[in-house]
Amino acid sequence: MIQFDLHVHSIFSQCGIHTVLELLDYAKNIGIKGFAVTDHGLTLPGGRLNSPFFERFRSPCPDVRILKGVECNLVNDRGEIDAPWHLIKFIDVVLLGIHPNTPKGLSADAYTDMLIAAIRRNKCIDIITHPNDVTYPVDYKRLAREAKSAGVALELNNSKIMLARTGIESAYDLVRACLDEGCRMAVNSDTHAIHELGLDDSVRPILKDTGFPDGMIVNRDEKSALEFIEGRRGNKVKPA
Ligand SMILES: [Zn+2]
Ligand SMILES: [Zn+2]
Fold first, then answer.
1. At 217, phi and psi to the nearest 5?
2. What mean pLDDT do residues 126-132 have?
3. 142 lies in a domain?
4. How far is the CA of 105 from the centre of ligand 2 (A)?
């Protein structure tokens, strides 16, 4: 079980089906320490962002910490992303992933270049989500090298493996690349349905098999997750 899940969708993404309050209630019941609500940026169809959530909401559950986040999309190949810049000062964690608004069928070099351009341009990015998406091949080693130098974590995404959306070998290759390059990882559920919250069963064996050190997982527990987030707080600014 992930103690502090940094990738969770709510009903504000077309892909999530639960409210933040339902997620909080479930988190309390299963005993996880906290999670980040990371709905999509507005480039994807059906996306919505709720300003009162970012500006005014405080968790009513003292024993479950909630972070406010966004999973951004690439806007173009120059590394622009669709972060809600007007809310950036309220945002704790910024994820970036390649999603269907980005053209399919390009080379691994092209997608890697896009992600690297985005990391360089947007200091606010904390985690690159699902780099092992079969639709958008990525050079894991080159990305891990760049992520490491920027203090960005690469995600080991439970949902993609659990739902067989990508092959398990891709996750092994990603973890080995992070290991070789000394890049930290975030282990996240990418919850779309509430019972997925905190799940890491599909990827936990990969970490064990590869000997990936627990100390290199940024959200290995509540303390490490919050230290990672707070350590990057000063980056939550719009690029000049
Ligand atoms: Zn995603
Ligand atoms: Zn997601």
1. -100, 115
2. 98
3. yes
4. 21
224: amino acid identity, one letter: S
| Span from the CA of 108 to the centroid of ligand 2 (angstroms) | 21
Task: Identify whether 98 is part of a domain.
Answer: yes
Whole-number Å distance, alpha carbon 162 to ligand 1 midpoint, is: 14
pTM higher than the cut 0.90:
yes
* Separation of CA 122 and ligand 1 centre (Å): 18
Reported as a single tens digit per residue, the pLDDT across 161-220 is 999 999 999 999 999 999 999 999 999 999 999 999 999 999 999 999 999 999 999 999
- Centre of ligand 2 from the C-alpha of residue 10, in Å: 10
Q: Ligand 1 centre from 71 Cα, in Å?
A: 7
Residue 116 within a domain: yes
Q: How far is the CA of 130 from the centre of ligand 2 (A)?
A: 8
Structural domain count, the chain: 1
The CATH number for 128's domain is 3.20.20.140
Give pLDDT, residue 84.
96
- Tell me, yes or no, whether 58 lies in a domain: yes
Which structural domain, as residue segments, surrounds residue 196? 4-235
Q: How far apart are CA 88 and CA 54, in angstroms?
A: 9
pLDDT band at 230 (very low <50, low <70, confident <90, very high): very high
The mean pLDDT of the chain is 96
180 C-alpha to ligand 1 centroid (Å): 25
